[in-house]
Design brief:
heterodimer, A: 141 residues, alpha+beta, 4-stranded antiparallel beta sheet, 3-stranded antiparallel beta sheet, 10 strands, 48% strand, flat, B: 331 residues, Lysozyme, two-stranded antiparallel ribbon
């Protein structure tokens, strides 16, 4: 009986701490790589969690990664990556490695360099700017 | 030809003979090139030389001059004009590069009476914000040499500004070994300066009183992310603009180029070249489509179409607002 009480106590103590524990998160790293068929340098990004590794290589322009931010919305991890698109624009590629792997949730071109993610109803939206500087929220998923 | 060369040599080594001649710009023309005592006045294409002996004389056309990469390389006195046969003495800094070009001109069937050729100095000195040399001295400092905030720059006509930019672009392209024509780069600058974010413009606009650190104002306004990327991936690029040569990262360059029009021009050209390399493009039109980065394909094509149309016009008929305006319109 005494042993059983100790076991139950330990279990009760362990449960809340297990619930509080943050799940392992994805780590995003990047590097430069030359395309095999050309001399073009491109950014390659890798999502890593434990032993799982997913690699994303842009096949089309833009090739240069310039921004990477992690966002947590409803316990779901997202990565906002910004790519040097045109002289006056940035392309944001949004990733959710847990659910979508290395396939971008969306690609949106913005005339502003700041951005943010938000959830609107059941949709994830990314903030972009129009040529005139107007703020726009685009559905990402 | 031998006579011309002889006269050239004589005039080059004996300039003091004409030291008392006074030179004036025809009203409406802008003084340029302080190498010559007196004034040489810019017009389209080859510059025209106007002169008079003293302030009470009428001003008359008395010759023309030619430049290479923004440097005066030759001047011709014609038989016409109030002070024919008299050349202004040259008084500028010593030449270092053996780059000479005699200007050939025939005026009404009459050949020129004299030609002067000069060795000119090339290199980074051609990239200073040096316009106009007589009215204002621009510093080599990164932060103060803002050509387009200078009242003299703003007082220039659109054509004069375009001619100045073309000269600088020619130098920049040459120094980097790029094949983009100065006409294309000038048309691109013209379009962007009239359409850029936040209403900051280069051509014929009000004085720019402040430059936000987050956005480069100028002829080649670009995003900071693009600047960073150009240095990170475009490792071929190293600035030739005085004061910028040692910068190796995009953020530093971006922040400092906000105060230097030439650096912005250079960087816009570098990004254009980077787009060409990224896409493996052969035609300028394709490069231009990739450059702007508008999300709508139709707008990118429109941008390239307009700049190309302006470029072709400048090449065929010289600098004019009519040609420059072809770069505008659409999305």
């Amino acid at each position: 009986m005494k042993t059983l009480m100790i076991c139950i106590s330990l279990l009760l103590l362990a449960l809340p701490s297990a619930a509080k524990r943050t799940p392992a998160s994805w780590q995003l790293t990047d590097r430069y790589e030359k395309k095999a068929d050309t001399e073009v340098m491109r950014s390659v990004i890798e999502f890593r969690k434990g032993s799982a590794v997913s690699t994303y290589k842009p096949e089309e322009m833009p090739f240069g990664l310039v921004l990477k931010e992690r966002a947590l919305i409803n316990k779901q991890e997202y990565f906002i990556t910004g790519w040097a698109h045109g002289a006056k624009t940035v392309m944001f590629r949004i990733f959710s490695p847990e659910t979508e792997g290395v396939k971008p949730l969306c690609e949106e071109v913005s005339f502003g360099e700041e951005t943010s993610l938000r959830q609107q109803d059941d949709k994830i939206q990314v903030q972009i700017f129009s040529p005139s500087g107007e703020e726009i929220w685009k559905d990402c998923k | 030809m031998k006579m011309i060369l002889l006269l050239s040599t004589l005039l080059t080594f004996a300039p003091d003979v004409f030291a008392k001649t006074e030179w004036y710009c025809k009203p409406g023309l802008f003084a340029d090139y302080s190498r010559i005592e007196g004034l040489i006045c810019s017009e389209q294409g080859q510059g025209q030389l106007y002169c008079r002996n003293n302030s009470s004389d009428p001003i008359g056309k008395c010759g023309s001059f030619s430049t290479i990469s923004g440097h005066l390389v030759g001047a011709i006195m014609t038989n016409k004009g109030p002070e024919n046969r008299k050349l202004a003495p040259v008084r500028d800094r010593p030449a270092t590069l053996n780059e000479t070009q005699a200007v050939s001109e025939t005026t009404g069937g009459k050949s020129s009476t004299a030609t002067v050729t000069r060795n000119v100095q090339r290199g980074s000195s051609g990239l200073n914000n040096d316009f106009p040399p007589r009215q204002a001295k621009f510093s080599r400092s990164r932060s103060t040499s803002v050509g387009y905030t200078n009242t003299s720059w703003l007082a220039m006509s659109t054509v004069q500004q375009a001619q100045y930019l073309m000269g600088k672009y020619k130098t920049l392209a040459g120094l980097h070994g790029l094949r983009f024509s100065p006409e294309l780069l000038t048309c691109k600058a013209y379009r962007e300066s009239l359409l850029n974010l936040g209403g900051r413009k280069i051509f014929q606009v009000q004085r720019i009183t402040s430059v936000k650190s987050s956005t480069a104002a100028g002829v080649s306004q670009v995003t900071k992310t693009t600047a960073r990327d150009t240095f990170a991936r475009g490792r071929w690029f190293r600035s030739k603009v005085p004061g910028f040569e040692g910068i190796t990262d995009g953020t530093t360059f971006y922040n400092q180029m906000a105060g230097n029009m030439i650096a912005q021009m250079e960087f816009g050209m570098a990004i254009l070249e980077q787009k060409r390399r990224d896409g493996g493009f052969r035609s300028d039109h394709s490069v231009l489509q990739a450059y702007y980065g508008h999300p709508k394909k139709s707008c990118q094509k429109n941008y390239a179409d307009k700049v190309t149309s302006c470029t072709n016009c400048l090449k065929s008929s010289g600098v004019s607002v009519r040609c420059l305006d072809r770069a505008l319109g659409g999305c």
